[in-house]
Specification:
4 copies of one chain form a homotetramer.
Chain A: E1 2-13, E2 17-21, E3 31-41, E4 47-50, E5 56-62, E6 65-77, H1 115-121, H2 129-142, E7 144-145, H3 156-162, E8 164-165, H4 167-180, E9 185-192, E10 201-208, E11 211-215, E12 226-232, E13 241-243, E14 252-260
Parallel strand pairs in A: 7-8
Antiparallel strand pairs in A: 1-6, 1-14, 2-5, 2-13, 3-6, 4-5, 9-10, 9-12, 10-11
Helix pairs in contact in A: 2-4, 3-4
C-alpha cells in the first residue's frame, strides 16, 4: 500500500540547543520512499550522518525562539506482515555476525535478567517463531498498553514491575525476553497506518530462520502498514530526537498517516 | 542558494534488465535536501543499499517495454566554492586513514603513470592547493572540453592522448595527476547550476590541509551551485546507472537545474 | 615499554557451548603488537569477525570435556599516560559523528540519571579535562575499589547505591557521569602492568579537545603500561567472553603482565 | 594443515619514506592464525588501520639506513580446495550488496573490454562454476606463467597482449573475464604451500552459488595450502606494500612456507 506520513513538531527554544534528529525514513528492502520532504523553520545549517545502525541522522543547533520541524513522505510498504509459525530457531553458531549485537543486553533491555521468565512464558512452544509469538501474546494480554502514559523510556525490568507502558515499553520487554532465549531482537521506530490513537510508534523484530520478523504487542492482530524510521538495540539508539543542554519538549506534535492511491498508477 | 534539480530518463527495454541506479542526492555537510522525489514507471520493487563510498544505490529489474525514471529534489547548496590559495600539502603520514584509498591508482585514473608530467605541470608551485589549481588551469587550457563527445568512460592515459574529452574525462586526468603527487583526489558526480549545455556533471575534489576542495576543469571560473549525487575513486565507482545484460541506452534524458526562492522563507 | 601479556582460562564443559571470545589485542595508534599467540585445547574451528567497535572477536563451539584458551602477546605501549589539565570541553555540534554514540546512555551506564550528581562533583572545574579528572578523583576517594568482589556487571546506578565495586563498576559510574555532562566516554578492557592484584583490567576514556584521554579510578596515580583488548560503550559491548546456553565459568584463570627488554634491541 | 609462513624484506632507505604495509594474515572463516610475529628493525612507531576490504594495514615512516620487516605466522588452513562443478550462476538481482563492487571494472581488470572474449572462452559451459573453471583452464594453457618476470602490475588488457605474466597478471585477466560475464571476482594475495619457486603468491576467487570459490591459473591442479593476506578488487587494493616518495625496492626478500605438525596436538 502507498502511505503518506507526516510529522510536525514545534519547540520554544530559549538557548541555542544542539539536536540530533532521526526523522528520515529508512530506504531499503521493506519499503520504498518515492517522495520525501524535510522542512525546518527557521532554516539552519544541518549536517547529516549515518549512525552505526544505518539510520540517517541530522545534526543542527536550534536557535532561540520558535523552532519547528516538518517531515513528510510518500512510501510504499507491505499490505501484510509476514508470519511463519514454526519457523525454526537458529543456533548461535549459525547466526550471521551482523546480528550478534542484538543478542546482548542493552540500556533498556536487561536480557541478562529474564532467562527464567522467558522460559516459563514460552514453555511448550517450538523453538523459534512460536516462542516469540508466545511472548508477543503474553505481553498483549499481561502488560497494560497505555498510550501517552510516559515520555521517558523505562527499561524492561521497570516495565515488568509496573505491568503497563507505552508501545516502546512493551517492545523493550519483548526484546529482553527474546534475547534471554538467544533470539536476536531489535527495536523499530516508525509509523503504523491505522494506529489508534495516531502517534509515532515502536514495535520489535526478531531474527528467526535467517530473517527479521515483525512483532507488535500493542495490536490485537498483526496487519500491514508499518513504515520504518530507524532500527536499533533499544530506545537509546533510536530516539526521534536527542537534545543536549537544558531540556526542551515539543509544544505541539502532530503525526499523520494517510492511505494514498497507488502513487505511480 | 536553493536549487531544484531533476533528471528524467526513459528506456525501451526488450528483456528483463537488472539496473543499479545512483540517483538520490547525498545528504551531508555540503548540501541539505529538503524535498526529494523518485518515480518509476512502471512501478517495480526497489532494493536500496549504501555502497562502500556512502552513496545510496537502488537495485531493480526493469521489465520489458517503456521504462522511465524521474528524480527531483530541492536542495540548499553553497553560493560560493571555497578556495584557499596556499593551503599546504599534508605528508602521507598525517593523512587520515579514510582518504588513503584516494591516493591509489584506479580503473580510469592510472596515477602510477603520471609522476613526471604532474611534476612539470606544477613546477614552481607551493605544495598543496596551488599545485592542484595549476593542474586545473592546465587541464582547462590544454584539454579540449567537448560535451556529449563520449558515452564510454576513458582513462586518464587515453584522455591525455586524445587531448579532449567530456567533464568526466578531464576529471579523470586531473585526479590521476593529483594522486601522482601524493594528493588524494576523488571524482564527484552531480549537477551544476548554470552548466552549459545543461547535463549531469562530473568534477573532482582534492584533499588538502585537512579537507576536500572542489575543482572543475570545464569552467573558466569556480562558482557555486554544485549538487552532489555521489563520490568515488573514478567513474567505475559512481556510474549514474550500471546495467547488466544486453546494453540499453536512454532514449530520452532530460536534466534541469533551476534556482528557486529561499525554500523556507 | 615492551610488555608480555598472557591470559589462560580453562573450563569444564558439559554440553557443546557456543562462545564469543574477545582476546586478541587491538592493534592501533596506542600500541604495537609484535608477537601474538592464541592457543585452544582441544583445537576447534574458529570464525573471526570484527564487531561494530572494531574489536576482533572469535566464535567457536567448546566441546564437552576440559577446554582451555591461552593467549599471549608482546606489545609496545606508552611509558606514560597523556594528561592535559585545562584541555577544553567540545560543544556537541563540533564533535565528530563517530563519537556521538558514546554520549548516549547504555546498558550499564544510565547517564540519563546522573546530571545533577555530575554537576555537583565537578562544581568549579573548567569544562573538559578538569571535570573528568574531578570525577576520577571523586570515584577514587568515594567508591570503594574491591577487586574480585563481583563477577556480574552492575550498572552505574547500582554501583552508586553500593558505593563499592570492581574496576569495571567504577568505570561504569565514571562513564555515566561524563556522558551526563555531554562528554563522550567509553569503557576499555585490557591489561595494566603492575596492577595489584594482577587480573584483567577495565578503565575508561573520555573524549576531550579532539582526542581520547585515559582515566582510571582504581589507581592512585595514572602511570603507563596500559594494553588494550577492546573498546565499547560498557561491559555489554566488551565482554572477554560471551557464552550461550547453561552458564559456564572458568575453573582456572591466570593473567600475567611482564616487562620484557626492548624487543627489537 | 598447519603451516608456518614467513616473509623477510630488507630495504636501504635514503630519505625518510612513508610505507603502507599489508603483511598480517587475515583471520577469518578460511584460516585460523594461532601465532603471529611482526618485527621491524629498527623499531619505529606503527599505526594500524583496517582498509575498505577488511585488510589490516600498517603505516610507518622508514628512517634512512637499513630497514627490515619480518613477519611470521602459524596458521591452520584447508587441506583441500572446495570445488563444485555445476554450481550455478546467480542472477545479478540475487547477489548480496556486498559483492556488487566486485562486478565493476577496476584499475587492472578492465572487464568492460572482455565481453566477447569471455563468451568465446566459456562457450558451451553451464553458467557459473563451469564457466570460471573454463577461464582458469584457458589461462593455464594459453597465458605463459613466468614467475619473477615483472615487478610492476599490468592490466588485463596488457596481459592479454603479452600472452604471459606473473601470478598476479594471470589473476587480473581471469578476474576481468569473470566480471565481464557478471560473475563477481576478486584478487587474493598470500602464500601457497608448495609453490615453485617459493614467493608471495596471488590467485583469484569468484562468487558462485552464494559463496567465494578459489581459482589459480598458475597451477596444474588445485590443491590446498592457501594462506590469505588480503582481498581486493585487484593489485591496486592489495599491494604488500605501498611506498611514497622516491622509489625504494627490497634488496632482499625471502619467503618461506613450511608444514608444521598439528600445532595443538
Amino acid at each position: 500500500m502507498w502511505l503518506r506520513t507526516s510529522c510536525e513538531m514545534s519547540f520554544d527554544i530559549t538557548v541555542p540547543t544542539p539536536f540530533i534528529l532521526m526523522l528520515r525514513l529508512r530506504s531499503g528492502v521493506q519499503q520504498w520512499v518515492a517522495r520525501e520532504e524535510y522542512r525546518l523553520r527557521p532554516t539552519v545549517p544541518v549536517f547529516e550522518f549515518t549512525d552505526n545502525y544505518g539510520n540517517l541522522c541530522q545534526r543542527l543547533i536550534a536557535p532561540p525562539g520558535p523552532f519547528s520541524v516538518y517531515t513528510s513522505a510518500d512510501v510504499m510498504t507491505a499490505d501484510e506482515v509476514d508470519q511463519t509459525p514454526g519457523a525454526p530457531f537458529i543456533d548461535i553458531q549459525y547466526l550471521p555476525d551482523s546480528v550478534l549485537s542484538y543478542l546482548l543486553p542493552s540500556r533498556y533491555c536487561e536480557s541478562d535478567r529474564f532467562g527464567q521468565m522467558a522460559t516459563e512464558i514460552t514453555a511448550g512452544q517450538l523453538l523459534g517463531y512460536d516462542q516469540v509469538k508466545a511472548i508477543e501474546t503474553w505481553l498483549h494480554t499481561t502488560i497494560h498498553y497505555e498510550p501517552y502514559s510516559s515520555d521517558i523510556p523505562v527499561s524492561a525490568v521497570e516495565v515488568n514491575l509496573r505491568q503497563s507502558g507505552v508501545c516502546r515499553d512493551l517492545s523493550h520487554l519483548g526484546i529482553a525476553l527474546c534475547r534471554s532465549l538467544s533470539i536476536p531482537a531489535r527495536l523499530v521506530v516508525g509509523y503504523h497506518y491505522g494506529l489508534e490513537p495516531m502517534d509515532l510508534h515502536a514495535w520489535f523484530e526478531a531474527y528467526i530462520a535467517g530473517r527479521w520478523y515483525t512483532f507488535d504487542a500493542t495490536q490485537t492482530e498483526l496487519i500491514g502498514g508499518y513504515v520504518v524510521i530507524g532500527y536499533g538495540r533499544d530506545a537509546a539508539d533510536v530516539a526521534i530526537y536527542n537534545q543536549f543542554g537544558p531540556p526542551v519538549y515539543p509544544i505541539t506534535q502532530e503525526i499523520k498517516v494517510q492511505l494514498i492511491e497507488e502513487k505511480n498508477a
